[in-house]
Design brief:
Helices cover 38% and strands 27% of the residues. By secondary structure, the protein is of the alpha/beta class. α4 (93-115) runs antiparallel to α5 and α6 (145-166) packs parallel to α8 (205-222). It starts with a helix and ends with a strand.
Length: 314
């Protein structure tokens, strides 16, 4: 078998096709569509509060749970299940359901206009699709690091159960964590307190973060997932790449084991007042890893996230 693998011959096109079939890229909404992302990538969305971090996760979830097409209607989704771990305990489920309903309604309305169909059709289809999509969204709240770790440990069994029941390739492909640094200060204070039992390993911020990273790594070994985590920036300073370009930076506070675990990092922040559009606050997104040195501007409204300008020099 090894000899056959070594002597095998395939073109670059065949190799890429095989690799993308096993590890497909995910077509994510703005501003995450600037770079190719797939399973086993760890994406960190960081920024001050508020900077639309949770909204990006929400719109990404809608895109994932919507199907690509169904009964001749193009919805533009991916038909994948999503695991959402809410460490901030602030996700607006009503906002998620409203965004999902709006996307379904828009797709059906466009299909009716294109095919000259009467109003009154697809009402049952719209309701059934909404129910089907919401079943693909799994939501869990965690109130401290220990609940978070316990949740990560049981995810493996949940995914195995879902795979055995579903039996298809289109299963859970995305794990969302909002916000990975939610318990940082609590864990930091707790680690400074005296530990009573010296025979046990001391619980500290570093050990908790190491355990989180190890559990996610174990999960990825058996279940290929795209992990997307938000992180709130506590403070910002100004720096520059050159004498004429000034960019905001952030002060890193997560332990180094998490920093090295992240494969992609994007910074989002509110734009200044001069960039408002119709009294709507606009936001800027910049990829730090990989460092593109480009900024995208977007707004958030009832339609979700709308990109205004792309490729602005920051």
């Amino acid at each position: 078998m090894a000899k056959g693998w070594i002597s095998g011959d395939e073109s670059a096109k065949e190799m890429l096709g095989r690799a993308l079939k096993d590890r497909p890229l995910l077509m994510l909404p703005s501003p995450l569509n600037r770079v190719p992302l797939g399973v086993n990538n760890i994406v960190e969305i960081l920024g001050p509060s508020p900077s639309a971090k949770s909204e990006i996760l929400l719109q990404m979830a809608v895109t994932c749970i919507l199907p690509k097409n169904r009964n001749g209607v193009e919805y533009g989704g991916m038909g994948l299940s999503v695991l959402f771990l809410d460490l901030d305990c602030r996700l607006d489920i009503f906002r998620l359901s409203q965004s999902l309903k709006l996307q379904i309604t828009k797709a059906i309305r466009l299909h009716k206009v294109t095919n000259n169909q009467k109003d009154g059709e697809y009402e049952i289809e719209e309701l059934n699709l909404f129910t089907e999509c919401m079943k693909r969204f799994s939501y869990t709240r965690c109130y401290d690091s220990f609940e978070f770790l316990a949740c990560l440990k049981v995810l493996h069994y949940k995914l195995e159960k879902d795979r055995s029941m579903d039996g298809s390739a289109s299963g859970v492909r995305v794990l969302m964590i909002d916000n990975i640094g939610a318990f940082y200060w609590i864990d930091r204070v707790f680690s400074s307190l005296p530990q009573g039992n010296t025979s046990r390993k001391n619980i500290c911020l570093q050990s908790v973060t190491e355990a989180v990273v190890q559990e996610i790594k174990k999960l990825l070994m058996l279940h290929p997932l795209l992990v997307v985590a938000t992180k709130t920036v506590t403070s910002q300073v100004k720096s520059s790449y050159s004498s004429r370009v000034s960019i905001p930076l952030y002060r890193e506070y997560m332990p180094s084991i998490w920093q090295s675990f992240v494969t992609h990092r994007i910074l989002v922040r509110a734009a200044d007042d001069k960039r408002k559009l119709n009294d709507r606050d606009s936001y800027l997104a910049e990829w730090l890893l990989p460092a593109l040195k480009l900024t995208d501007q977007f707004v958030v409204d009832d339609n979700g996230i709308t990109t205004l300008m792309r490729g602005l020099v920051n």
